[in-house]
Sequence to fold (405 residues):
Amino acid sequence: MRGGPSVLGIVLAGGEGKRLMPLTADRAKPAVTFGGTYRLVDFVLSSLVNADVLRICVLTQYKSHSLDRHISTTWRMSSLLGNYVTPVPAQQRLGPRWYLGSADAILQSLNLVHDEQPDYVAVFGADHVYRMDPRQMLAQHIDNGAGVTVAGIKVPRAEASAFGIITPGSDGTQVERFLEKPTDPPGLPGDPDRVFASMGNYLFSTKVLVDALHRDAEDPHSVHDMGGSILPMLTARGQAQVYDFDENHVPGETSVQHGYWRDVGTLDAYYDAHMDLLSDRPAFSLDNRRWPIYTHAGPLPPARIVAGGIASESVISPGCVIRGQVSRSVLSPGVVVAEGAVVQGSVLHDNVRVGRGAIVRGAILDKNVDVPPGAAIGVNPERDREFYTVSGNGVIALGKGQPVR
Fold:
């Protein structure tokens, strides 16, 4: 950060994302398209860059080609000032093995820390949808003299098994316990039906991080994971504190959008987060010029709605051509909806074509899916389950270029 303490950003982007199949069949989870023109990794990178964290390493591993290409072509910083966002693939620096977990990924990449010699290291996840000003979290971390500060958000206790759960001490900031995906955690004092969930965003004092990683590497019983290993270790040593995400205020946000954060690790969560974009006063807005989400804008013309086409409560990206009816949907660049076609409550990725008279309802179609004229998706649930992936809530998903039956 200019004129302040030096911070190195490390973004963990090596996850396989099995629960998002088939969208992750051919790409890493952080490379999955979101909101029409963005990739999931753009949200964490935008928060860091907007906060003047301008030296960022993105650790990649699983099917990372499209992610590496997106970062290399989109996230170009000023080399004159020594700033960069760079993908860092697994390099087997400590022996012939890939990453054993998120902590091992950073351990194998400690050369990045040693090269920069930062005062602090921001270790953030790459696959959540949110806006955040990390400077406010850093200020608390410095003021309190913490070894690590973990960003926490209050969620219903019934959802605790999906997250790392933080039990704060009596002062509200010291972490008393850190439980990785527990089935029955205690509720918050005075709010027993909610818990503090880890957002997967951590700020470390550099020496504390390096020491913890080396200790963890020597433990033969460790799972070598940030949430499963490093946070419990530092909690036991009294060095972990929690930062309440509700205290974070991003320039340009509205009261409706304040505190928005979504883990889009499942098809249902991914779909629901898209639906959050569509109301007149959306829970999450892609349009905030004071805290923008950056991405690559290709050389495409403006979207066109022609020949009696209709679009309502939808996000329509450049290059789209709509001749049919589109409602409550998100269309990525190059989508074509032909005459008489109906698209309702759906998410269509790049270059999807919906033929004349076809129907698409409650579906996620990955790039280059061609829906033939007269075909129907989301009309016959039994048939959909026979040929396509269908989520627990009934969202139909087709992978990249998957034939429509």
Observations:
- The chain has a mean pLDDT of 92.
- The domain at 7-268 is CATH 3.90.550.10 (Spore Coat Polysaccharide Biosynthesis Protein SpsA; Chain A).
- The radius of gyration is 22 Å.
